[in-house]
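Our example pasted here:


***
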Amino acid sequence: MGFPAFFDAVPGIVLRDPLAEFLGAAEGGLIEYRYADAVRLAGHSCPTVAAAYAMTRRALAFLHPDDLPQRGAIRVDFRADRLSGVTGVIAGVVTLLTGATHDTGFKGIGGRFDRRKLMYFLADIAEEMRFTRLDTGAAVEVRADLQRVPFASRTPQLMQKCLDGSATPAEAAEFRDGWQARVRSLLLEHGDDPEVFVLRPVTGGTEPEMR
């Protein structure tokens, strides 16, 4: 059941979840999420899952420089449709970390802790996602420029051989190592690289219009 060793080196994300505190699920409501949690949710480790984790971590750190983010108190807007490309995969990781959902989340207790209507798609925003604090209205947009961290040259060829069943055991191992090497580089070498994970502060803090 072992994950690649580098998973443990990826910085975690600590949030305070008032619902978890209210129900006694976490002392003080404090919950730490790790990259391995995102992998468990998605069922795999890839550049998309890594980028979703890293973008969320950077956005939350920007919005909460002096305190802990509050799970359930962040609105997330996506520029793309929920069914477009890998948007659904990214949204799943974002929901894990922020609690935000469109209409499928927890409905709340006594008018509190509602996790619905916190995630929207087809938003009129400049970047891939926008994170907004509900308490202050502070917002930041973020995108991932993954082409700046390419796969090893043989990885696409080896993937095809693995898919068509022609890869040798050594080639299959090389493919897996190469695949995770890019994930490792994204998270550890470029996790705070502003040219890979681009942040754009939003002035005014207004909610984006829906197309």
Summary: The CA atoms of residues 94 and 166 lie 37 Å apart.
